[in-house]
Amino acid sequence: MPLPDSTGRRLLGRLREYMAGGGTAQERLDRTVRLIAEETSSDVCSCYVMRAGEVLELFATQGLSQDAVHVTRLRVGEGLVGEIAARARPLNAPNAWDHPGFVYRPETGEDVYASLMGVPMIRGGQVIGVLAVQNRDRRPYKDIEIEALETVAMVLSELLAGTELISRDELAPVAGNAVLPFRMEGLCLNPGAALGTAVYHRPKVHIERLICEDPDAELARLREALQALRRSIDDLIHSHIDLSGDYREILEAYRMFADDAGWVSRISDAIRSGLTAEAAVRRVDDDMKVRLSQANDPYIRERLHDLEDLANRLLLHLTGHGPTSAQGQLPEDAVLICRSLGPAELLDYPRGTVRGVLMEEGAPTMHAVIVARALDIPVIGRLAGAFSRIAPFDALALDADNAQVFVRPSDDVREIFLHSVATRQARKQAYLAERDLPFETRDGEAVTVMMNAGLLMDMSHLDDTGAMGVGLYRTELPFMTRPSLPDVPTQTLLYQKILDQAGDRPVVFRTLDVGGDKLLPYWSNDGEDNPAMGWRSIRITMDRPAVLRSQLRALLRASAGRELRVMFPMIADVAEFDQARRLVDAEVARELSRAGDLPSEIWVGTMLEVPALLYQFPALLRAADFVSVGSNDLLQFLFATDRGNPRVSSRYDVLSVPVLRMLRDVREQCDAAGKPVTICGEMAGRPLEAMALIGLGYRRLSMAAQGIGPVKQMLRSMDSRTVTTYVQALIDRSAAHPRRALASFARDHAITIS
Prior knowledge:
alpha/beta, Glucose Oxidase, domain 1, eight-stranded mixed β-sheet, 26 helices
């Protein structure tokens, strides 16, 4: 070490021969470590393999005592070898004995060796072992030596996968008898229920050749495959043009990854080191999985799925298979089992064949979940061990609402699910049948029910649900799915499309609300300790007024001749609102100076999310045209409760007396000032909570599209005067359990809250 290219390729070639040679798997591995020690001029080469329970066992060594083989074991994180496995990163220790993580194992006889360099053996994004070399001399290893050992480790990982060193059963968790029904719990990423048949989504591409003989020929193959990959993504975009602009933006951003020069360059460098194009893609993909999965930025971690999908598609082109949806015959009720899912992969399947998705990973904001939401496919994520516990063609029953899946369900469970699915379909049909009926209570009290949206594709739900407008349009997603800040013309075109689809129905645009858990890929993240209460939302856009002014300029131009309703998020002080409103005035003056067309009417409002505003409310109502209560953040801050933390998110009830009293006071002050007030958080979309809000005097609610049908049924079955009297009484007597009392009241008065 370092190895010239020719020597490196010779080592890789001999490595393949040694592992493919005769003898047991153990004998082949023993020959391999001797070869690596010889070719790298190392005194020691050792191979540690991951066993069940996250234990690294010394499987083969050249240089250490043979008595230590299958005896020396290190937990992940223990010693230098354990640290390499835990961090999934190389370690370079010129003097291993001085390293704070060093752990001495006397049976190895490593007393005479000073320096150590080790690299993780990674396959499928998982560490399956550690390859380490040692020398008697104290010496730092060069970067080129580390890279050479990483390449060797990658090839050895693939070769080991074909051996029987460790039984697959050892690493597969089993819950009782494998043929019996059982239940798994995860995280609801998109609600719904379904019965279906398990299908492994796109099995991993098997690589036949690892070592290349002609790097130039492999580079040419890579270029051809990249061209084919780009064409196939373009075809995918064009073939799903009906899925709207925002989804197309997700695909366009995904398409840009295929042009990423750094990604292509790293694959090319791996080919030049002696790997085939396929093996080079696999090596870079595994490295990216490890690096991105360790990032603190959730947006970066979620883009891992986009890159993984691209790598798999590129491998399919290299192997001549092309993108396919699934191996063999696809059942008509497929439930996809996958580790993760790229943003375009659901579109590889014929529409209507996928009933649900189960992921070992996944997050609510990942692009594939956004697409599943648009296609109304239930998704459950964070199902640890899904592949090891669910076999292909297993019968499955998904209850995504409660984040659980029943594997090989009994007849009783299937019957319950069939009834549940049928009930859901019947409810959907009932909601559809009532779509054109007015939103009013049984005693004729009209209620304005609007929809929350964040994608252009969401706008189609206005007609599906009969919603009276968009009470909250989240404008941040186009900012989050692009590699750079969208310019004014791009934003203007998007906002025009939104208004066009809304027709004569109002749309309330919330200005850019990023920070916290919504990070932009092109803005640095300083890793705040408490991002939900840090530099986010209006605080960012006021610190970067050019961004807010550009958005306001686009909104004004898109609304020319029409009404514009815009509101600012996360306002904590009336002075902040005044400052933001001055920017609106400045942009209006700018448009007038250039003889631009202005909106017919401009309404400027604010979200009520920060409790401090409650003590400035009279002054706020003098400045704002309307108020939207963001119940999610307002109650999170009111109770000092992280709504994303399952340990505390359900500790406090949104129907408690303090909340009801606060919301009543807000509504009374808005009514007295003659300013419209809307509830636009999750609270508005749940029938029981919506009933309580009507009892508090609210007549404007905005919610996710799926909540509109149930809330309308509740409205049309209730008497507003009776409910108002009861809710006021609960507040006045400080009832101990308002939720329980409200549910009993609804049941006694035949109010539909299911």
